[in-house]
Amino acid sequence: MANFDVFNGDADGILSLVQLRRAEPRKAELVTGRKRDIKLLGRVKAGAGDHVTVLDISMRSNADDLRRILGAGASVFYVDHHNAGDIPEHKNLNAIIDTSPEMCTAMLVDTCLDGAYRAWAVTAAFGDNFPKLARAKAEGRELPLNKLARLGMLVNYNGYGGSVDDLLYHPADLYSELASFDTPMKFLNENMTVFDALEAGYETDLAKAIQAKVIDKTETGHVITLTDSAGSRRISGVHGNQLAQDNPNRAHAILTAQKGGYLVSIRAPLKNRTGADTLAMKFETGGGRSAAAGINHLPDAELDRFIKAFRAAF
What we know:
2 domains; alpha/beta; six-stranded mixed beta sheet; inorganic pyrophosphatase (n-terminal core); five-stranded parallel beta sheet; Diaminopimelate Epimerase, Chain A, domain 1
């Protein structure tokens, strides 16, 4: 029997798995990648008797491979908050899917574990841009919220890039650094080397991002562009999250230049966290969830269409 742990390379995916494996240690093949690398089940060659855990990747985007894995006789535990499409009915599938605008995968895992590793779930919620959810779940517990928010943001920051070569840490390596600790507080007390490296990279990349050019501006939405660089690709998502926090009534699109077009991060207004996925899926490589979505490649020729669709959406 083989085990596979399949997880998004952002804070929500990594810290969901940290919780599960603290509760139930298990040797498994780690299958992950950068945040935008979501069709991860294509890498899993599971058969009868194998067990696959899937965290924080869209079932809709992995539907064919999910059916293949189930058909081969493997069992699948699937937890996610993205647009799922049609959820197959199968005796070997245990799916916990909640696409509510104010929910993240790590909090679904937290519920499964009765809050046993709540501090990690709170850290993940901060990282996935759910500060209200994070604070609500932290009530009654003496947690250093500012430190957890910073750690969550930095873990999330590390997941963005055009390829894993852009990342400061491969997500599997970052998971391994975090998974040895019952709480993020213990991690921060004993492994500041990783934290310091992430923070230094973030501050350098942010200093450049705040100079970004605004190419379309209305009262309800801004579209900005970043240059074609590893730093731009790393900072694009968390910069979008921060812009959303700073301007809760405004939608944002962060377009990072790449060959022949743009990598796009979309953030719906925090006051109405809907519509980002619907907009993204109007384009060939788009996907995500209602509050935050993206397009892996927006061709130059479709920029005007995107701006018009963005204005119509928000």
